[in-house]
């Protein structure tokens, strides 16, 4: 006699209950369930830590899933990323609790997911054993989290969280041109409000930007640390006759400016050793280095100097996350 078919049905958020998950988190006699909770909690915390700082503020600080449930009840209940992730954790945790070593193998299994329940159903349908289910379950929770985060971002773009959403009227019988004009006006209003939110205060002590490193090449100053500050302090004028290693000024100078490929002046400000570059250090072949634009070589060299001065180690601390750090260039002219 064939074993009966087993059907798992996972509902959407209408059936979600933090109380059910809280009860599940207090189960201590199931090592597989405890392992799942520990691993998925770690994965969620890593996922949140990788978000931009402004998005990290949308989530509470917590160490355990129980702390996350408590924090969600105290002010983060409207976050769909947490809602979807916790729903998926609850559904998969219930499946693990019901397992007695053969729930996925002893009989035919069908998994049905309704709306957001599809995340848990997908993890079940791709696993033949509980051992296979654990990594799939963790990935399903992360996908649910990212899906909720995407909807959260879209909602905040339309209406910031600090603004109480107005009651939207129903518009009927409107011509296409009139509707388009109203929509354009609404979008312009939203853009203007976002720009106002980004307007700087003009007070340095309130700035959220810190300059932590710099590098550069300047006329008669090989770097900022060498002679640059002296030139500024003394107010020196460092313009000079065009060096011979740039081009032959005698054949390319025409005070009238009428000849092609000539200059009306014989003087300028020039950096020293513009071709000096450590190709091996930057993993460039000699041929690639020779064909590279000198400006590119100077750019990556000075960028490295700025990062070295800052002591920058990517993603080692919250303040050194890659999305919080930028390198900005300025150039006056070239020869």
TrEMBL record:
Pfam families given in the database record: SAT
PANTHER family (alphabetical): CONIDIAL PIGMENT POLYKETIDE SYNTHASE ALB1, FATTY ACID SYNTHASE
InterPro entries (alphabetical): Ac_transferase_dom_sf, PKS_Beta-ketoAc_synthase_dom, PKS_NRPS_Biosynth_Enz, SAT, Thiolase-like
Identification of the protein by name: Ketosynthase family 3 (KS3) domain-containing protein
Annotated ranges, domain Ketosynthase family 3 (KS3): 206-335
Organism: Letharia columbiana
One biological process term in Gene Ontology: secondary metabolite biosynthetic process
Gene Ontology MF annotations: fatty acid synthase activity
């Amino acid at each position: 006699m064939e074993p009966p078919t087993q059907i798992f049905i996972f509902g959407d958020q209408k059936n979600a209950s933090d109380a059910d998950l809280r009860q599940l988190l207090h189960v201590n006699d199931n090592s597989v369930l405890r392992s799942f909770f520990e691993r998925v909690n770690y994965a969620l915390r890593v996922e949140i830590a990788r978000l931009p700082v402004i998005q990290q503020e949308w989530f509470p600080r917590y160490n355990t899933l129980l702390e996350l449930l408590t924090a969600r009840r105290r002010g983060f209940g409207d976050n769909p990323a947490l809602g979807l992730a916790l729903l998926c954790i609850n559904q998969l945790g219930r499946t693990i609790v019901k397992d007695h070593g053969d729930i996925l193998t002893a009989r035919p299994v069908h998994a049905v997911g309704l709306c957001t329940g599809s995340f848990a159903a997908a993890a079940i349908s791709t696993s033949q054993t509980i051992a296979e289910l654990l990594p799939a379950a963790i990935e399903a929770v992360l996908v649910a989290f990212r899906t909720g985060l995407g909807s959260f971002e879209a909602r905040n773009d339309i209406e910031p969280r600090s603004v109480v959403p107005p009651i939207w009227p129903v518009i009927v019988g409107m011509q296409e041109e009139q509707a388009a004009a109203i929509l354009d006006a609404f979008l312009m209003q939203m853009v203007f409000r976002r720009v106002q939110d980004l307007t700087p205060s003009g007070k340095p002590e309130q700035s959220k930007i810190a300059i932590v490193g710099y590098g550069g090449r300047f006329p008669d100053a090989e770097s900022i640390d060498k002679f640059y500050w002296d030139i500024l302090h003394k107010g020196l004028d460092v313009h000079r006759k065009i060096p011979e290693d740039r081009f032959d000024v005698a054949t390319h100078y025409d005070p009238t400016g009428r000849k092609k490929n000539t200059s009306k002046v014989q003087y300028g400000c020039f950096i020293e050793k513009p071709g000096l570059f450590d190709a091996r250090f930057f993993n460039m072949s000699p041929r690639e280095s020779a064909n590279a634009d000198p400006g590119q070589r100077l750019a990556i060299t000075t960028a490295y100097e700025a990062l070295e001065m800052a002591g920058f180690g990517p993603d080692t601390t919250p303040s050194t996350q890659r999305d919080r750090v930028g390198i900005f260039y300025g150039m006056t002219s070239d020869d």
